[in-house]
Each structure stands twice: as structure tokens, then as C-alpha cells.
Amino acid sequence: MTAITPASLLQMRSAILQQNSALQKAASSAVSGVGAVDPAQANTQQTSFAGAMNSALQQVNSLQSKAETASTAYEKGETTDIASVMLAREQASVGFQATLQVRNKLLSAYKDIMSMPV
Predict the structure, then answer these.
(1) Which residue has the higher pLDDT, 73 or 35?
(2) What superkingdom heads the lineage (predicted)?
(3) pTM: predicted TM-score of the whole model, two decimal places
């Protein structure tokens, strides 16, 4: 396992912030272009948003798999580095919580849109 340093934590934080801003840009461009975008562009935007969501879900799944592997290795006695095990589990937990919050926001936006008068 790799050692966790403050620099690597800051790098992970900046990567998360970059992904967040990319998702916000994708969402704002999709919302600002409603009604003014031709179908070919709309399909491209939808694909990129779906790709971004798929990529994010795969990353969360990967983090959870790594955490499970680290936990299993610790339980079997193959490793004694409890700090790396706990860090992997916490990273997976934070990723899952972030995914859950995105889902909740999407559901809230859907409900708001569906309750709008036409």
C-alpha cells in the first residue's frame, strides 16, 4: 500500500473539487441550453453527463472494493497497517456519502421540475 502524506491528501482534495466543478459546469450548460439546443448537441451533452456520472460511480465502486480488500487483508493478518485500512474505509465512506447527496439533489430537482405548472 502507498503511504498517505499531506501532499497526497491535498492532491485528492483538488481532484474531488475539479470533478465537482466539472459536474456543475455540465449541469449548468445542460440547464442553460434548454430549448435552444439542437437535438445533436443535446445528445452530446446527455452522453457527457452520463459518462461523468458513470465515471464517478465507478470510482466510488473502486474505492469500496479497495476498502474491502484492505479490511479483509487486515482481518487475515496479512497486513498490520491499521491506519491505511481505516483511511481506505473512510475514503470509501466519503465517496458513498457524496454519491448519496448527489442522488438526493437529483431527486429533489426532479420533484421540483415535476411540480412546476406548465
Answers:
(1) 73
(2) Bacteria
(3) 0.55
Please, where are the H alpha helices in the chain? 6-32, 39-76, 82-114
List C-alpha distances in Å: 92 to 31, 58, 61, 81, 88.
30, 12, 8, 17, 6
Cβ atoms of 1 and 70 closer than 8 Å:
yes
How far apart are alpha carbons 89 and 70 in whole angstroms?
8
Mean pLDDT of all residues belonging to the chain: 81
Task: State the burial class of residue 17 (Cβ atoms within 10 Å of its Cβ: 0-12, 13-18, 19+).
Answer: exposed
Give the three cell numbers for residue 34: 434548454
C-alpha cell at 19: 470533478
The answer, yes or no, to whether residue 52 has pLDDT greater than 70, is yes
Amino acid at 52: A
Asked whether the beta carbons of 1 and 79 are under 8 A apart, the reply is yes
- Residue 62 CA, chain-centre distance (Å), reads 11
CA dihedral defined by 49, 53, 59, 61, rounded to 10 degrees?
-160
Arithmetic mean of pLDDT, 16-45: 64
